[in-house]
Each structure stands twice: as C-alpha cells, then as structure tokens.
Amino acid sequence: MEPSELVVQMKGITKIYPNGIAANRSVDFSVRAGEIHALIGENGAGKSTLMKILFGLELPTEGEILVNGEPATFASPLDAISKGIGMVHQHFMLVPSLTVAENIVLGMAPRKSGLFIDYKEAVRLTMENAEKYNLHVEPDARVADITTGMKQKVEILKALVRGARVLILDEPTAVLTTQETVGLFKELKALREQGFTIIFISHKLNEIKELTDRITIMRGGKSVGVFDTDSISEQEISRHMVGRDVILTVEKDEATPGEVVLQVDDLHYVNEWGKRALDGVTFSVRSGEIVGIAGVEGNGQRELVDILFGLRLPEKGDARVGGKSLIGQPQARIRNLGVSYVPEDRMTFGIAETGSIEENVISDRFHHRRFNRGPLFRMKELHKESDQLILDYAVLCKARSQEVGMLSGGNIQKVVVAREFSSDPILIIADQPTRGIDVGATELIRKRLVDLSRAGAAVLLVSADLNEVMELSDSLIVFYEGKIAGCFDDGLWDDVMMGEYMLGIKRQSDEEIGRASYA
Amino acid sequence: MRDRRMAWFGIARGAAAITLALGVATIFIFLSSETPWTALRYLLIGPLVTFRDTGISFNAQYLYQILAAMIPITFTGLAVTVMFSANQFNLAGEGCVLTGGFIGGILGVYLNINSGWHAVVAVLIATLACGLVMLIPALLKVKLGASEMVTSLMLNFILLNLVNHYLNFQFADRSKGATMTKPFQPTAIIPSLVPGNSKLTVGFIAAMAATALVAFFLYRTRWGYAIRMIGINESFALYSGMNVGGTIILSQVIGGMLSGMGGSLEVLGRYQTYLWRDLPGYGWVGITIAILAKNNPAFVPLAAFFIAYLNKGCLLMSTYCDVPVEMIDIIQAAIFLFFAAEQFLSGYRQKLVVKTTQEDLMKLDASLLNGGENHA
After folding, report:
1. CATH, domain range A247-338+425-519
2. Closest Cα in chain A to B353
3. A220: which DSSP letter?
4. Least buried of A111, A347, B172, B234, by fewest C-beta within 10 Å?
5. Inter-chain residue contact A22 with B376, CB threshold 8 Å
6. What's A254-296 look like in SS3?
C-alpha cells in the first residue's frame, strides 16, 4: 500500500479523559481514498472518541494524525473541515426553526451588499449541490417539519458544501426506517463513485456487509484488526467485537396473557411545537405479555410515555393501571400503583451522575420501612440491597460506593434496570432500554424483560430499534403521526412490512386497529 | 489506589490554594507596610502566641477567642452546606443570623424564666422563627418558580429594616446614648466554658453537636438523601418519585434554623444587650466556609477555624503594625478565587489521571495474561 493512497492515517492514538477513562489505547487507524470504511465495535469500545479526535472535537493524549500523508493537528472542527473532513453526528446538529437552505449555509451564508443574507443564493446553492450529489432536499422546508431521513441528507449536504472529501457518519441508520436506510445506502454508494471517502460507524453487521469495503474492528479502546469486508463473515466480526459469539436472538415461551393491566383510552395531545402528537390512541397491555411500539421517532411515542408517567397532561383521554388513572398523578403515586419506567434519557432521568451506585439503586425505595429505623437509615440493609442488585444484574464496578458516572454506558443502564426491574412491578414501561449499549448488557436486559413478562408483569416496550421490538414483542403496535397505523400479533410481521406502516404507506382498517384494545 | 491519590490531590490542591492566597497577601503586606516581616509574623503565628522580649509563649486566651469566633460561622457554614447540597442558592442566611439574634435578644430581655432554661427557650424560639422566615423564599421557589437566589437576597434587606424598625420604635432603651435594648437578664446569657473574657461559650459545644447532627442528617437519613439527590439531579429525583418540592422547602427551612440558632447564640453569648444595627456578615462568611468545606459538613468546623484564625491574625496585624484590617478581605477573596476555580491545577490533575490510568491498565493487562478467561 502506497502511503499516498491513504487519505487519513491515525497513528498510536491514546486518549485518557479527565475522569480517568482510557477511551483509546495506541490505536492505529487508516482509510484509503474512495472507500467506504466501517468502524465497528461495542459501545465503549472507543469508536466515537477516535472519530471525535479526527474531527477535532477532542485532543488526543498521545499519537499523530496524517491527512494525505501530511501531519495535521486538529484543535477544533474548523481545522478538520479545512482539511476536508466532515462529520454527521448521531444526534443532528441542525437548527430546527431555520429552513434547510439556512441550515446548509449556516456560518458561511452568502451576503447581499455585504450585510444581509442572500436567501435566494442560499437556496440556489442548496439546489445545485443537492443535484450534484443526488441528495434531494426541499430548501424552503423548516428543519422541524422534515423527516429524520431528510435531516440526515441535510447534514451530509452541509458537510459536502463545506468541502468535505472524507465523511464520518456516526451510526447513521440508527434512526432510519428500512426504506430510508436503503435510500441512504444508494446515496452513499453514489458518493463513493464520485471519489468521496466515507467512514461508517455502526453496530449493525448486515449493513456493514452490504455497504462497506473494509472494516476496522475496535474492542476495549484498541483496534483489533482491519479486514476486507468480503473476506470476513458476520460471525467472525461479532467474535472480534466481543471476544465471543453473541446470541442476538432471545428465547421466549409463548405468552399467556392475563387481565388488562394498562388501558389507554383515546389519548389526544398537542405538543409544545403545536404538533398533534397523539391523535386518539387506544390500546391495552395485559399481564404476561410484551407489547411493542414501533415507529419512526417523533410520531408520538415520546409524548405517550411521558403522559403515562405523569410528566405531561393530555387534552383528552385516559390511561389507567388496575382501574386507577395515571393522568397527572405524582410519580410517587404512579410507582405505588406498581409502574416502573426505564427512561429513554438515562443520564437525565435514570441516574444521579455523581452519586454512588448505591445511592442510584435505592432512589425509588429508600423510604421503605425495611431501610429505616426511626429517623435513621439502616445502612446494613441498604448495603445488602445494593450489593444484591449489583450481583443480580452483573454491574461491573469496583464497589457500591463507586460513582455511577464513571461506569460505561452499558453498566449505567444495568444500574437503572436493576432498580426498575426489582421493585415487583405490575407494569414496566421500557423506553429504548438498550439504545447505545454493548451487546452483553443488551442481552441481559432483553432476557430479564422477557423473564419478568413471563412471570406475570405487563411490559410496554418502546424502541427505535426495529429488530428489538420485533424480537421481543408478543404483539406490536406501529405509530404513525400520533395514530396507531397498525397492530400485529406475534410473528405476523417482517421488517419490510413494518417499514411500510412506519412510513405511512399503509394503514390498517379501524376494525383491525381496534384489536389493540381489550377493554 | 486511584481514589487515595485523588484524595491527596484534593488536599494538596486546597493547601496550594491557601498558600497562593497567602502569597498574594504577602505581596500586599510588603507594598503597604513599613515593617512587613513583623506584620507577617503577627498574621501567621500571632493568633496563638504572645510575643515578649524574652521570647514567645503560647496564649490560651487567643485560642479561646478563635474558638469563640467559630461559633456563628460554623452554624452559617452548616446552613449553607445543607442548602447548597439541595442545589438551592439561598443567601438569606445573613438575614436569618440578624433576625435570630434579634428575636433571641428580645426574649433574653423580656422573657421571665428563672433558670438556665431561659437561654435555651430564647435560642429555640429564635431558631424556629428563622425556619419560618425561610419559608418565604422556599415557597416562592416551589409554588411560583421564583429564583431563591434573588428572593433570599432581597429578603436580607427586608429583615434588616424590619429589625431596625422594631429596635428603634419598640425596644430601644431610651436611657442609653446609642440604639440598643435593655440589658439581657442574667438567666438568658449563654454560660462561658472557660475563665476570662474570651466569649467561648456553651455555644461552641452546640456548634460541634450541630455539625455531627447535620452530617448524620445528610448522609444517614432519608431526608438528607433526598436533599443530596435533588442537588445532583432534580429530574432524576422527580422521576424516582421523591417529593421534590417538599424537600427543597425542607432544605431551606433547615438552613434558616441553623442560621437563626447561630445568630441567637452569638448575641446572647457575646453581648449584654442587643445592638446590631447592620447585617453582621456571618451569613456571607458561611458561603465561603461551605465552599472551602466542599459542602461536606464534617469539614465545616475546620474551614471555620481557618477563617477565624485568619481574622484574628489580621486583627493583630492591624493592631500592632501599619497594615489595614481590610487585608482580611483580600486574603479571603484570593482563597475564594483559587478554591472556586475548577481549572486550578487541572493540567497537573490530568497528568496524574493519565499516569494512574496507565498503571491500572498495565496491571489489568498483566492479570488478564495470568488469569486469562475470567473477564466476562
């Protein structure tokens, strides 16, 4: 390999964060011009850190970066952009209230008489580039109104307009439907034809096999190896990623649903942007079954879960657990009814970051009689409880007194789940329970969820990971624009079909949708 | 391994901040004094010794005075610690010291209990009253969402003017030249612990007991736990089902009570009549102390001792040398700056982190080579 063909070389990159986490340890990473290169590894393997360093968001503790064979130091993303490196983040960096064209020219807007932004020129520039790169967007649409897939195109265009020759895509398909993913792959392949280089970060093995030329696999902050995609099987990739074979299917017995635990009746809600987020949603969850909610994000799932946990008030409709309404109730009361909740945003709602593991696992039960004697805590009981939970949920830590924020994402989620699953809940609301965590933790959490439902709990599973909802659910509800677009019984679905309902191409009849409710 | 090294780093950083602050003070002393070395000697070791021609000897009375000065600021330091633990930036500790002192003083004059219980009852009523006063910013915060920082700051001046009003028009002893109340009854005076005029009273024992109680309260009770969790992450506490509003109110009421108790113990322990005409400043010092103690109640008496020692040193320096007493403000401000600056010595901290992490990783690698399969 001639060095000149390597558009990016990172040599001996080590990154140690101020909290002592070594995210990268002497990583070598290089990309050839004009290839799609996959960067794959479990969460916490160091992929994101490595890419943040390449994009100038983090400074490496040790190591050097070469771009086109020349040494480069990136103190900020501006330096990286000037060297032709662009990044599309997992969470889009767009201004929702501005139009597509305004977002694309943000910071480099064409001017009229040196003072006013030339909006027409911005639109023209957008159209021209959209045409050139075959990424079709509507320049005048407000970003808040466009679909996730469209936002991603805007992000890619934004990078290209700024002169990027190397594009870093951080888990781009995590938020897309199957159809949108197919579209994205076409666009990426077209970009490769035009000579662009793409670094593609992903967890999804099938996508990597389909799309990429070469693969760098990371594990535990190190690079495990670089492979030609054609010469390595999915099983081999997964073995390199986790150091063992991962069973990604969950074994579960047939569900034997009992009585209705959660009954949701005709919920209506208009969200803070005036969008009708929920438009007459009715369904039930019975004990002993897992009901999955699938849908592209932003179709009312977030608002539904918030209403169920008392964080928002609907305009109309009711939600009851065991006959008692949840609407507008304080969280203590909702928990007392036997509801537990794995929140989507675990760092905001799930944990107190600088608190200890112990302080985090007892937050819903610290006031119970068994942990208190008079005004004082029974410290021994608290220690016993937290040690037991750490053991039961295999939380990897030094001690119960360790700060939760110092754990890896998967272990943080295990702490949340340990608390939420161990309070004998009759209803578990699990919102994206395995998003962005490693395979080991994902397996454990999915298995526990199935075990709890088979032991009689009702489970409402909301997930953007289509494989997860399809794998775990006993019945499945698809949300589209605040309405139920379809409901399906176990096994009567596949991902292409789901995609059609998620994108609003198909919709079941009212009678069919009515089957979601047993009231 | 890492924990211990980081703990040492914390202590070393504190010591470095203090040393640097004293260094800044030294510069000003050399700029302003004709006899800088003598001034420095008074500042640093003066508070503990008497200088004589024959040499220096330990001065117990000075030590008692320092301990006595710790009483009110230990209470306000604890008050701020409790409120800051719940992430409540309530600054009305100052007003509560004044109000508690005033109420304690009035009860010391007019209450008739013919035993030591007089002082106890006066202090407890003052304490409760200040707890009630603190309900104002607390309820405004919880019910209306008003920033407790603004309301409590304003509250200080409302309290000051109310106290002055009642002192002038209701309780002033007209036979005196200055505005003050009638003298306290002997039963209301807080008894001294040691002979002499040091004002080291039973209040010191109360301050130490309060320290232990607050430490227990914050780390060993369900209410203290809720206060700390709300302080770390209010959304998390709400989602866990904690009574967030009630706990926010509780933390501020406790802050008010501690401040009021400190104020009344100070007034009834140090003076013969109530004569404060302005905010005494102990509430502000309490903030400095809480920051020095990193919101840990166990460190509050240490921080209070340090501040009291420094005050005494500055007082001696200005009495016996030509350095103005305002030097204390410069030193305190410098310490405050160095302590509060998160980035202070962070480069060195990062190097330490890198070193320990690499050591840990090498050990881990070695154990993996030996132990092989055990990492799951």
Report:
1. 3.40.50.300
2. A20
3. T
4. A111
5. no
6. CCCCCCEEEEEEEEEEECCCCCEEEEEEEEEEECCCEEEEECC
pLDDT, tens only, A44-56: 678 888 999 999 9
Q: H or E segment at A496?
A: helix A495-502
CATH number for the domain harbouring residue B134: 1.10.3470
Indicate whether B333 belongs to any domain: no
Going from the C-alpha of B117 to that of each of B182, B189, B201, B259, the distances in angstroms are 20, 10, 15, 21
Q: Which domain holds residue B140?
A: 66-322
Residue of A nearest to B346 (CA): A18
Q: Is B5 helix (H, G, I), strand (E, B) or coil?
A: helix
What is the per-residue pLDDT across A184-207, written as a single tens digit (0 to 9) for each?
999 999 999 999 999 998 877 778
Does B94 score more than 90 pLDDT? yes
Question: What is the β-pairing status of strands A290-294 and A475-480?
Answer: parallel
Helix, strand, coil tally for chain A in percent (to 5)? 35, 25, 40
Q: What is the pLDDT of residue A108?
A: 81
* B195 assigned to some structural domain: yes
- Sequence-ordered alpha helix ranges (H) in A162-289: 178-193, 205-211, 234-242
CA distance A62 to chain B (A): 11
In angstroms, the CA B121 to CA B133 distance is: 18
- From the CA of B86, how many Å to the nearest CA of chain A? 13
CA quadruple A174, A178, A180, A182: dihedral, nearest 10: 110
Query: Any chain A CB within 8 A of the CB of B12?
Result: no
- Whole-complex ipTM: 0.81
- Chain A residue with CA closest to B365: the answer is A220
Q: Considering CB atoms only, which of B236, B353, B358 is closest to A18?
A: B353
Interface mutation vs chain A, best among B142, B239, B250, most A CBs within 10 Å: B239
pLDDT band at B317 (very low <50, low <70, confident <90, very high): confident
Within a domain: residue B42? no
Spell out which residues of chain B touch residue A22, defining contact as CB-CB under 8 Å. Answer: 357-358, 361
Model confidence at B369: pLDDT above 60: no
Among A107, A263, A181, which Cα is nearest to A464's?
A181
Please state, in angstroms and rounded to a whole number, the distance separating the CA atoms of residues A255 and A450: 10
Q: Which residues of A touch B (CB under 8 A)?
A: 16-22, 25, 61, 309, 330-332, 334-336, 341, 343, 348-355, 359, 363-364, 366-367, 371-372, 375-377, 379, 394, 440
Residues from chain A that touch B232, judged by Cβ atoms under 8 A, are 352-355
Q: Do B357 and A355 touch (CB under 8 A)?
A: no
CA distances A88 to A161, A220, A362, Å, are 13, 24, 38
- In degrees and rounded to multiples of 5, residue B308 shows phi and psi of -65, -40
Q: Does B348 touch chain A (CB under 8 A)?
A: no
How many domains does the structure of chain B reveal?
A: 1
Using CA atoms, how far apart are residues A487 and A293, in angstroms rounded to an integer?
A: 9
Check A22 against B240: CB less than 8 A apart. no
* Cβ contact, residue pair A352, B357, below 8 Å: no
| Nearest CB to B236; choose among A351, A366, A367 | A351
DSSP B129-152: HHHHHTHHHHHHHHHH---HHHHH
Interchain proximity B228–A355, CB inside 8 Å: yes
For A349, the closest of B220, B235, B358 (CB atoms) is: B235
| Mean predicted confidence (pLDDT) in B38-43 | 86
Residue range A3-242, CATH number: 3.40.50.300
In the block, which residue shows the tokens 């959209």?
Answer: A130
Distances (CA, A) of B170 to B106, B134, B268, B279: 10, 24, 19, 19
As beta bridge partners, residue A202 has: A40
Residue to substitute from A14, A15, A16, A379, interface B, most B β-carbons within 10 A? A16
